[in-house]
Amino acid sequence: MAENANILLTEENGILTVKMGAPKNNLMTSAFHVEFEEVMDQVMARAEKGGIRGMIICGGRHFSVGADVAALTERLGQCDYDEATGDLPEDHKAEKRHFTFLRELPFPVVAAVTGFCIGSGSEIALNCHYRVVEKGARIGQPESTFGILPGLGGIARTIELCGMQTAYELVMTGKLISSEEACEYGWGDVLTDKKQGLPTAYALIDFIEKQGIFDPAKYRSYIADYTTRYCKS
Amino acid sequence: MMIEQTEFTTEVRGLTNLSELVTAQLGDPCLVIVYGDASMEIELNDALSAFFENAPFLTALASDHLTDAARALFDIVIPSEGAADYAAALFKDQSRKQAKEITSCS
């Protein structure tokens, strides 16, 4: 598998792993986005060949602290956004597709969330089918506190997972929530002890594989079965 | 019916029937807060369903008394006591433009 400087894509035993190891706790700079999109293009290409059982996206101590706000603000200022028509710039649409396509992959995509998982970083996790959350993680969409919005599918996914009320509160206030709150609200699917995120993600993929062919449209049913069997109430 | 508008919200009190919302002058808020009590009548019909489905704002029910069916109509359900504080916390430090943009995405 091709390797980028900060985002490593590997394949072992039919499972793809995207390990994000960019500087400053996966601060999502313009360079990060370029690498991320290159890796996601490789994932798309590999997925088309078949034989993949699942995919895990993980960080290091922190999943991602989100966007480099200064760089993002500068980039947004240069965007060709037509306020009259509401048409989004093509480069933004392409950027968003590199996140939202994860939901359509024909195998389970699991985010193993550790530490800070914030803003655009949270949107990477949200666009996965499942989120295994290690205790001590802090999650949130603080974009509104910077005068911007989650623009990579985060709002729609948070509504889908957590319901309108919780999603509205999270996005409007920009507050960070704990790992326990995230799982209580439905943002997180499985709460684990520290350093158990990756093993749990692998176990989840193995469990789903045993249920038969994965249907991404029914992803919620698989996690319901898993948590019923393996997670304490 | 009493309607009070703030920068971000429209508060509605004294409804005898929830359907009064359909023709009420609610302005252009981000959030409409309906204070309901057990005496408020709720007749679920197409007009009322369409109102909630097509509203360009979010709707909140501030009540401790209503049925699950009524609660299901609203985007947000909060206890009647503290509803004003809830709205203040929600929109704290927000500009109206920002709050409207977030609301339009929801």
Provide structural commentary.
The complex is a heterodimer of chains A (233) and B (106). With 233 residues, chain A is α/β, with parallel strands linked by helices. Chain A has one domain: 2-enoyl-CoA Hydratase, Chain A, domain 1 (Alpha-Beta Complex). Chain A is built from ten helices and eleven strands. In chain A, strands 1-2-4-6-8-11 form a six-stranded mixed β-sheet, with helices on both faces. In chain A, strands 7-9-10 form a three-stranded mixed β-sheet. The termini of chain A are far apart. In chain A, 42% of the residues are buried. Chain B has helices at 46-54, 68-73, 83-90, 96-105, and strands at residues 2-5, 9-13, 31-35, 58-62, 76-78. The mean pLDDT of chain B is 91. The chains are: A alpha/beta (233), B alpha/beta (106).
What key phrases describe this protein's structure?
heterodimer, A: 233 residues, 2-enoyl-CoA Hydratase, Chain A, domain 1, six-stranded mixed β-sheet, three-stranded mixed β-sheet, globular, B: alpha/beta
